[in-house]
Amino acid sequence: MRFAFKTSPQNTTWSEMLPIWQTADDIDVFESGWTFDHFYPIFSDSSGPCLEGWITLTALAQATKRLRVGVLVTGIHYRHPAVLANMASALDVISNGRLELGIGAGWNEEESGAYGIELGTMKERFDRFEEACEVLTSLLTNDLTTFDGKYYQLKNARNEPKGAQQPHPPICIGGSGEKRTLPLTAKYADHWNFVGGTPEEFAHKRDVLAARCKDIGRDPKELTLSAHVRLGEDRNYRKVVEDCIALGAEGLDLAIIYLPPPYDPAVLEPLAEAIRDSGLLSTP
After folding, report:
1. What is the pTM of this model?
2. Domain Luciferase-like: where (predicted)?
3. Is 283 part of any domain?
4. Residue 201: inside a domain, yes or no?
5. What is the per-residue pLDDT across 92-110, written as a single tens digit (0 to 9) for each?
């Protein structure tokens, strides 16, 4: 199994987040670090502070040398996919090919409504997301993109320079919906993120995703399977390891450990040591 960490840029400060990433950059247990894409804090007081995820990630990419970096995941309705494609390519260039491109259909009604950004019905969200996946992948790989959809229309559109990774930065789709999310993951993604749940729920969604891959002639083993695993405020590292063992038994490839604020670099080495001692860590 491989390991990553996530620091949501909510209810925190830049000076608090930065040392976590710089410390993790020197601990080879962690292959990647992730932020999220919200403008209000989620699952807490929404009036609190929240740093914008992509700007924060860009600064963190410059402050690190080894870690792969990503937003888990980008709400596609917040940015036109042509804008997002340019952002992703630029950050992949700037980071020397370390970007993981996380995307999702979007869900937060509070911040979308406050900003006047149309979220739409569930069907509208996924119709838009499906178009965005096609637009994004084309702009990231092709010289010219022409697209005539309901939500997006492009004519001989360019995105230059392309990112450092070819054919494009790995695409991670987050979510577990069996009707739309998992089929789109099978078609467009390199990485699927299971937001959270029991090992049994993970195994069920894994099987659905594998079936959708086979429907289109794709080998399910081509996809990285990840899940959030939470480190509690009690810093129970053994509990993290036990959760990873249970998910690993069901085929988890990458455990993304959600760190609790206030962020403290001192949690990283004991966490890494617990992972090393568990025998779960994949060797290169």
Report:
1. 0.95
2. 13-230
3. no
4. yes
5. 999 999 999 999 999 999 9
Taking alpha carbons only, the member of 92, 77, 74, 71 closest to residue 159 is: 92
What's residue 282's pLDDT?
81
Residue 284 lies in a domain: no
* 246, part of any domain: yes
CATH code of the domain in which 87 resides: 3.20.20.30
Look over the chain and give the mean of its residue pLDDT values, rounded to a whole number. Answer: 97
Domains identified in the chain, total number: 1
Choose the weakest-confidence range: 62-66, 114-118, 178-182, 193-197.
193-197
CA-CA distance, 219 to 237, in Å (whole number)?
A: 34
